[in-house]
Amino acid sequence: MPISSELCAYAAGFVDGEGCICFTRRKYGYYPVIQVSNTNKDVLDFLVMVFGGKVGKKSDNTDKWKAQYVWRLFGPRAVEFLRLIHPYLLVKRTQAETVFQWRELREPGKRITQSVMDELFVLDVQMKVLNARGPQDA
Fold first, then answer.
1. Is the dihedral of CA 108, 110, 113, 118 positive or negative?
2. Are 35 and 71 in contact (CB under 8 A)?
3. Please, are residues 72 and 34 in contact by the beta-carbon 8 Å criterion?
């Protein structure tokens, strides 16, 4: 079943506002991860139903805070999701494009050489700069 442009735009808004696009380091390289945190588990379960991935508990209820949940999508599925929402991303468009560069380096069947690992490392550093908190130099 095709996913509507409205659902893609809705998901893009969530990623822009509540999400993170980053890389995680594993034994054989770097892999993209998309995470969206929210206190409303139902909306995250909806993202799982439409786009896949998993929901986990990020934090428990306290006297001051509601429980928080996180939806995660990894690797090639994260790339497919970003391709769907890319036209609607405003804040995290460059992070998505960095993931697309990862995909070009990590195409199935391509051997991971040291030079590819070096390029993946550079993409990881670029992503960390894009995701840095606090005031940014102009």
1. negative
2. yes
3. yes
- The DSSP line for 73-94 is EEHHHHHHHHHHHGGG-SSSHH
How far apart CA 17 and CA 15 sit, in angstroms, is 6
- Longest CA–CA separation in the chain, Å: 51
CA 33/CA 82 separation, integer angstroms: 11
Dist CA 138 CA 128 (whole Å): 17
Q: Per residue in 11-50, pLDDT tens?
A: 999 999 999 999 998 877 789 999 999 999 999 999 999 9
Its pTM surpasses 0.70: yes
* Domain extents in the chain: 5-130
Q: At the fourth CATH level, which superfamily is domain 5-130? A: Homing endonucleases (3.10.28.10)
**How confident is the model over 76-121, as pLDDT tens digits?**
999 999 999 999 999 999 999 999 998 888 767 767 778 888 888 8
CA distance 114 to 36: 32
